[in-house]
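B., you asked whether I could sanity-check this one before it goes into the benchmark set. Here's the sequence:
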Amino acid sequence: MKLLDQQAKLTFLGAAGTVTGSKTLLEFQSTKILIDCGMFQGLKELRNLNRAPFPIDPKKIDAIILTHAHLDHCGFIPVLVKNGFKGAIHCTEATMELTEIILMDSAKIQEEDAIRSNKYNYSKHNPAEPLYTQKNVKASLELFVPHEFGQWVILNNDLKFELQPNGHILGSSFVQLEVDQKTFLFSGDIGKTKPLLLYPPKKIDAADYVIMESTYGDRIHSDGNTKEELYEVIKLTYDKRGILMIPSFAVERTQEICYLIYQLRSEGKLPNIPVYLDSPMGIHATKVYDRHHELQNISNLEINKMYDDIHFIDDYKMSKSVCLDTKPKIVIAGSGMIEGGRIIHYLNNHMGDKRNTILFVGYQGEGTRGRSIINGSKEIKFFGEYHAVKCDIAVISHLSAHGDQADILSWLKNLKQAPQKIFLNHGEKHQSEALCVKIKTDLNWDCVVPKMSEEFILPTR
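And here's what the prediction gave me:
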């Protein structure tokens, strides 16, 4: 479809009807900009999309604007680079640093999984191959261009953008993209009104088109006291002389858990129990947080002390030793949805013991092992076999880096005039549709839930 000079086209190449694989293509005249470039995770039918032919030649994409470093927003970048993308990848400094950690870890895990699959014949592919390698990641990192929050970046005579903090994870941003005479606002993953570690999302008062996430568009986070809930789970597990295993995302959630544990210990509530952060990626991400005190809304004293009593494990031999030990302890390990990482080794050794507990502290995507356990599965598959789930399961649902329905509406209400259209992405179908109804009912604004690969032609004047 040929665009007129005063039209732009939006195509939803990912995170449409799902919370993964975020990719939104904006085209204006001859320019093609990809906002986020995420990997699909979770359900097999979604993961298969990672290996499907990309709907546009990567060589024809002029630039990528990256909202933040989570894998479902950055994880497909090495594939595009491997297939010919050579444009700039724009993001904040902290996002660039975290993305390097996350992509290198992703490539390493894929390479190791391929080796293991070929050795034990786990995969139907012969041979099994990683989606991308560490070499592909290194080539991608050469294209990154970091920017300050609030810095206008000129792409050409008709296109410019700025990044503003959105309170989701360190360095995360929403994108205010000026196209001809219209403003396109891409929320990225919007944070809560009162994040635990970060500053709240910056308010914006005008936009013509809003591309809005809807991960928790159908619900309100409970008002529970997160610190007290964590304390109760720790105490119950410790009283049974058990092991508390916390699958945690390396970025933001890990640092939040460490902060809450630090607070409990400072208040004299924490039992005399060792705490291990067994996640090389989590440790590296924590060091990025240490370099960016200015982005965190807690005191420098707290930042400097909150990790003092946590044992960092990045050596594999030490990890194996701690994993085999059955004494009471708290272990924070990746991955957050149990899709890989060292947490699987802990589950392999301790999930069958009723004294122990798995504590979920983040969103569990459809089709992931984490979602299966929360939904009551009595066994899960890893290492090519099924393993019984006999330990206790606990969930702290409101410890989320995503804003809920009320947070999203509060942020949108800063707009002084109704946008011409709101597009709801990055949400499972019922979540997006519930938020769409709420926006239409409460705000009387035009709202739509795009389908995967759906295109929209929008006037720019």
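One thing to flag: The mean pLDDT is 94. Otherwise nothing jumped out at me.
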